[in-house]
């Protein structure tokens, strides 16, 4: 059986893997940092793992904000790059940076001045609140660095410059792991800082990455990390960005907040559940790495094709991306099953938490397929075609009218066993499959969202 049917097939897979490979490397390293945090905190204690896991919910929410703004910007930038125009890309970068910095300043202020209140949202355990507050104060500065990095690197990826972000992320993640060990265990004469050491390592690695990002951007001829872009104005582009990016950001924030509510539910079921879930999250992140990489790379490639005006080519590209996603989702599930014995052997948890961990790993062996397909379609294919509104509506209904209420009722009204509650929460991805797949088949998402003569006449002066 021939792997490729024709030269067009070969060209497609070369292009997609050239985009996906660096993104997968970044995702793997990101998951590796999360693993390193858990592995090292495992030697500090179960409370340290649980506190960082709960505090990291705010990091996850912010990531969803940046991811939403970044992919919203990518929707426009990838299509304008396919069209061969750079000035709209610079304007969009400035718009996205403005939004990300404003939101980050709010989170940074809360994390610095009111971290205990933020922790009480997720737990009433005094020790977890104390440890989480220490972690969040250090993370306040990290939020600001991250808001700049994620937008600029998203824009670079949208124009095919994926290797730059890969190199910078590799450096930052490697540094993060080394500094974790230094500050957690007190290597080289450093103080043993425990939970605070994890946050300080993240802060320093992101700060160094940002400095390097500024240096690398000076070598870029067309798109640089320039705050002057924030001053550029174009009424039509601003309208397009808000119309497309805000639903994308809202979609990701709604989804992220719902996952945080899952943590609220589990946080009030006991620290054993929280500790087990923190380990499962790391394993699941590895299981979805390749599928999420295909979604990110696919958004860029599909956006470029749509921007060039080749709609038939876009349909073929989308179909191939979905087949790749299904294959990667199956491999991800097998990976979760394969590593489960090692995770269970490694985990220094109570007997009760260990039992929860075993069941959670089994559930996630198939959950990754649901997450992979939905991420590819909602955050990949649909957004590449300029459709971010569908995902926002779909996830709002699925998460907030179905999964979150179901979890609260199961846990606190029906008082079902912990694993029954967890299983019900993990049905969210599969419930929306018929709606998502139906929208894909309708082809209503396939649109060229670029404009002509954006900077002609009076509009250029706006």
Task: Please give a handful of descriptors for the protein shown.
single chain, mainly alpha, 81% helix, disordered C terminus, 462 residues
Overview in brief:
This protein is mainly α.
Give the strand tally.
Answer: 0
Q: Kindly state the percentage of residues in helix.
A: over 70%
Percent of sequence in beta strands: under 5%
Please compute the radius of gyration using only Cα atoms.
22 Å
> How does the helix and strand content classify structurally?
mainly alpha
What characterizes the major β-sheet? none
Number of helices: 16
What is the general shape?
globular
Note the run of SSEs as H and E: HHHHHHHHHHHHHHHH
Distance between the termini: 58 Å
The structural domain count equals 1
Low-confidence spans: pLDDT under 50, at least 5 residues? 458-462
Mean pLDDT: 84
Overall description:
The chain is globular. The protein is an all-alpha fold and 462 residues long. The termini are far apart. The longest helix has 38 residues, at 46-83. Helices cover 81% and strands 0% of the residues. The chain has 16 helices and no strands. The protein has helices spanning 7-42, 46-83, 87-113, 115-120, 126-158, 162-185, 195-217, 235-267, 271-287, 289-307, 311-346, 351-384, 389-413, 418-425, 428-431, 433-442. Residues 458-462 have low confidence and may be disordered. The chain has one domain (7-447). Helix 3 runs parallel beside helix 8 (235-267), helix 5 (126-158) packs parallel to helix 7 and helix 10 runs antiparallel to helix 11.
């Amino acid at each position: 059986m021939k792997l490729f049917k024709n030269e067009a097939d070969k060209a497609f897979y070369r292009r997609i893997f050239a985009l996906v490979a660096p993104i997968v490397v970044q995702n793997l390293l990101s998951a590796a940092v999360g693993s390193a945090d858990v592995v090292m905190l495992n030697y500090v204690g179960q409370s340290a793992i649980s506190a960082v896991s709960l505090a990291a919910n705010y990091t996850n929410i912010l990531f969803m904000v940046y991811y939403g703004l970044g992919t919203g910007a990518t929707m426009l930038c990838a299509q304008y790059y396919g069209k061969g125009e750079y000035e709209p890309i610079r304007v969009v970068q400035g718009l996205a940076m403005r939004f990300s910095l404003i939101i980050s300043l709010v989170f940074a202020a809360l994390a610095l001045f009111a971290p205990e209140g933020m922790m009480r949202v997720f737990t009433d355990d005094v020790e977890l609140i104390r440890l989480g507050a220490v972690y969040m104060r250090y993370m306040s500065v990290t939020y600001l660095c991250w808001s700049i990095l994620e937008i600029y690197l998203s824009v670079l990826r949208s124009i095919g410059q994926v290797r730059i972000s890969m190199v910078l992320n590799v450096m930052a993640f490697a540094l993060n792991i080394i500094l974790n060990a230094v500050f957690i265990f007190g290597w080289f004469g450093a103080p043993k800082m425990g939970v605070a050491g994890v946050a300080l390592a993240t802060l320093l690695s992101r700060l160094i990455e940002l400095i390097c990002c500024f240096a690398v951007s000076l070598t870029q001829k067309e798109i640089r990390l320039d705050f002057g872009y924030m001053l550029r104005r174009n009424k039509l582009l601003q309208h397009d960005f808000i119309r497309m990016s805000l639903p994308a950001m809202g979609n990701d924030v709604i989804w992220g907040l719902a996952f945080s509510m899952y943590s609220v539910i589990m946080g009030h079921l006991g620290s054993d559940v929280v500790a087990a879930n923190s380990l499962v999250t790391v394993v699941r992140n590895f299981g979805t790495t390749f599928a999420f990489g295909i979604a990110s790379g696919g958004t860029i490639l599909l956006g470029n094709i749509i921007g060039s005006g080749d709609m038939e080519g876009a349909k073929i590209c989308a179909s191939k991306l979905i087949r790749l996603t299904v294959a990667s989702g199956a491999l991800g599930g097998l990976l979760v099953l394969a590593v489960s014995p090692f995770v269970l052997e490694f985990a220094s948890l109570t007997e009760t938490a260990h039992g929860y961990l075993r069941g959670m790993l089994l559930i996630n062996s198939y959950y990754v397929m649901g997450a992979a397909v939905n991420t590819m379609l909602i955050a990949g294919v649909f957004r590449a075609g300029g459709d971010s509104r569908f995902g926002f509506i779909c996830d709002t209904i699925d998460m907030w009218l179905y999964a979150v209420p179901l979890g609260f009722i199961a846990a606190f009204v029906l008082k079902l066993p912990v694993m029954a509650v967890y299983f019900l929460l993990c049905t969210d991805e599969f419930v929306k499959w018929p709606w998502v797949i139906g929208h894909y088949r309708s082809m209503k998402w396939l649109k060229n969202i670029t404009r002509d003569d954006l900077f002609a006449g009076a509009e250029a002066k706006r």
